Protein: Histidine kinase
Amino acid sequence: MDANTENSIRQEQIESFGRLMAGFAHDMKNHLGIIRESNGLMGDILEMGVLGGDAKMLERLKKSIDAIERRVVISANMMHHLSGLAHRPDHPFSSFLINDVIKEEYVFLERFSRLKQINIVMELQEMLPAVYNDPSLLQHVVYRIYSQCLELLESGQSLSIVTEVEGNRAVLVFRFPFGVSVTDGETLLHTTLLSAVEKMEGTLTIKDKNKDGMEIRLGIPSLSVDSTS
Structure:
């Protein structure tokens, strides 16, 4: 099997997986909508006093209804972002806002930092221009860098995720606190990750800012439509 055929199969596999996730997210949003409506109906019945009964029991029911509502809202938000995440592979190249991609993916990345008790600080610059590139591949690269950043940090430390513009590139920065040393560049910037960045025609560098700590900088250019066709 030649490399082009293998790459085509891999791309179709990713697209199929994305569409399966998108279908799942759509169905789950419908289920959550029904749960929310039913929960709201129970709240209305309690407010009308139809059930009567013990005041303490009614108060407990109201608290349960409020808790269900909060969880439904959180779950619906996650399904919304999962749907967006799943649809990214539909078009290998498209125009997108890097902040949207980061917010979308962070909904699912947040769990890993929470388990390790790492504080994530988002500093997303507003009004960044859209870039034309591969959003699905960018999400893969972000996940790999994010995971390795967490391995370098101890419980209680912070990681800043910053977006900015540098020339004609959008730049995503992973900034470490002072005292964290990013010395193992060969492991952090391994061949597979660098190949993915190269496919986006991007850049990936480690920068030492002395007392301001170290940072990993991912540059994402806006490609021309002709170069990706």
